[in-house]
Amino acid sequence: xxxxxxxxxxxxxxxxxxxxxxxxxxxxxxxxxxxxxxxxxxxxxxxxxxxxxxxxxxxxxxxxxxxxxxxxxxxxxxxxxxxxxxxxxxxxxxxxxxxxxxxxxxxxxxxxxxxxxxxxxxxxxxxxxxxxxxxxxxxxxxxxxxxxxxxxxxxxxxxxxxxxxxxxxxxxxxxxxxxxxxxxxxxxxxxxxxxxxxxxxxxxxxxxxxxxxxxxxxxxxxxxxxxxxxxxxxxxxxxxxxxxxxxxxxxxxxxxxxxxxxxxxxxxxxxxxxxxxxxxxxxxxxxxxxxxxxxxxxxxxxxxxxxxxxxxxxxxxxxxxxxxxxxxxxxxxxxxxxxxxxxxxxxxxxxxxxxxxxxxxxxxxxxxxxxxxxxxxxxxxxxxxxxxxxxxxxxxxxxxxxxxxxxxxxxxxxxxxxxxxxxxxxxxxxxxxxxxxxxxxx
Amino acid sequence: xxxxxxxxxxxxxxxxxxxxxxxxxxxxxxxxxxxxxxxxxxxxxxxxxxxxxxxxxxxxxxxxxxxxxxxxxxxxxxxxxxxxxxxxxxxxxxxxxxxxxxxxxxxxxxxxxxxxxxxxxxxxxxxxxxxxxxxxxxxxxxxxxxxxxxxxxxxxxxxxxxxxxxxxxxxxxxxxxxxxxxxxxxxxxxxxxxxxxxxxxxxxxxxxxxxxxxxxxxxxxxxxxxxxxxxxxxxxxxxxxxxxxxxxxxxxxxxxxxxxxxxxxxxxxxxxxxxxxxxxxxxxxxxxxxxxxxxxxxxxxxxxxxxxxxxxxxxxxxxxxxxxxxxxxxxxxxxxxxxxxxxxxxxxxxxxxxxxxxxxxxxxxxxxxxxxxxxxxxxxxxxxxxxxxxxxxxxxxxxxxxxxxxxxxxxxxxxxxxxxxxxxxxxxxxxxxxxxxxxxxx
Lengths: 442, 442
Description:
Two copies of one chain form a homodimer. By secondary structure, chain A is an alpha/beta fold. Chain A has two domains: 4-72 and 247-414, Alkaline Phosphatase, subunit A (3-Layer(aba) Sandwich); 83-242, no CATH class. Chain A is built from 15 helices and 15 strands. In chain A, α5 crosses α10 (264-272) and α6 crosses α7. The longest helix of chain A is centred in the middle third of the chain and has 25 residues, at 191-215.
């Protein structure tokens, strides 16, 4: 019998050794976690190199890989996911970039970055500045749109007649006290793609220059200056992504999929692959998210007949970026308290893992593997793990080390949805049972 | 000094946790196995993902991979191995498919499968039906042959003038109560290959329809009906394979190879790569096989000067498919009792592993890794393994997790037959010591 599948991603779950905790935050928490330890003990564990050892994945490339998509062939760029997640209208072929409102200082015709987040500007100030920029863009007839999203963040959409490309470098140098960069086509492209990238880069550079022109002396910024706040006098864009119809998750794996998530990026990735949203009141993608409500959302999705439910919890990562190791451990305990309900579902396979490790000492993604536990009442090889954490998963995991791209095939196998390698009852490449061909007519 | 190599494949060796055994069948057996535990303790162990985590290999793709062949480039399809293993004459360029005699019911011009094995028909009934079908095929001048092999099984060979292709989907949907499928060219092929696949599919579909026409009212089936037995009124073919000269095992690895096997498929794969058969009386490929005789066969092969001997034992897999966990454990004990003789051979490297895991709870191949032990008096790193099983290999194996394609390079290295990566004393790609080029003439 085919089982249902629940994939729980605790963002940035893995971590490094924190002296004050005498272990990683998860190791520290695992002295008290109950459900996670049960899943590890009665299930199978291992470590996951989501992309490869030493490669710290971004959250979108990590999720895309875990969902079974090939980064080298199918990745469309982060901006597209961001736009989808923020409900920004985007048409096929258009390119989206996320941006920050930032503070720059002009010197010798270059714009030096002083604050990549313009003092974490937000609310009406940010909205008004983006609106002003949009007005100028429209007046000049530049084929682009800017949308404010959360706090200092926004999305830039490149439109227009000609073919566009996501293969353009970031304007944002991801560092302070260096000049704002020129968007440029990737070196490795050529032909039509290169022409499209040149066109896309031209529009991005035009909008970037215009943003300084419009925003530097804008009344909002003059007011901010008077208050001693940094001016938000440029938009720094990055992560160009193109809106392209992807092979859906259902086409790839034969499962109807739904998601429960708070953070816009995760919603965006899930939407891009055709998963349906299960809306949960108070699911904010922050540490104050409605954890109980999210678990109920998963149960609702299962009841509604979805085969696959993706549950995303962001707080673990945010606390790591804020260098709050102890709070990360405490948040893991909070999650552990609500997870038990999932174990009561019949005929389900559950995997719990992270999309990457995040160092709560350094506040950045790191390339160390993440622990994983597969829990199911079938196809399990028991390992002697008593505590679900990075160290025990490495020492005693029944699975050893796997890659991010192995997770979906494993879930398919554990849920009785797979076919033996080489079987081909369909002209299409068959991975999952049920992908049948045409009947023979007499 | 170069050592000889013995590769022992216990088919479907790995398994899942079986509550009644408080472990996997191998884990349970390893409380009593002697030789396997000695090999693990004095040798080196690890886990093998034969294809990749979560991908349950078929037996032929598994063996082909373990022998060091590249599935994406060199795999010729299962039917070819089946034909070779059953000693069915097949010429280069012809396509073979295995088939089942099956029971179908006609409804709205479609044929619904009621029993994929026609009540496990065998003997004279099966022979006579296949003969009747062959007669009709010949009368119509269809370029094909059908051969009965064992029980409800047979092999269909597609012949003819034009180029043929193995890239056609299965007529057998691998499920009951769904319609018989139309053979169709794979989606990913084009050009000449596509034309060849269309031609091949046309013949397969013609034979399939004809089989219903000829068999449905055949006297044998009328008699079966009267006895309350299911009619064998169609042949369901699958696994098209093309007869192509493969790079031989000797060309690839520099070793003269022989095999000891009972099951036709394994004989077929071994033959296809040019291994020589060591015939063993009573080697049946069943649980009643002549285990002692097979070990003697390996010793004979070593004495005869073969560098590499492949020993295949099928019973472990068959018992798993029959969901007999305890019997699987007992069969492993029986194997363990005869393996000791292999350890007495001087200057030999022995590897024991499975081609895949098979769940003896569900009776199907699963995508969990298989344990492996390399035993040799050289190039060994001892691990603290006291019992050869899936769990100890995961927890304490000196090798960690390897892939199926790593086994041959490891055996070459352990047997002093390898060359450092990059060394090139031959215009050919050099892997093994002894692959030399032409001497310089003065």
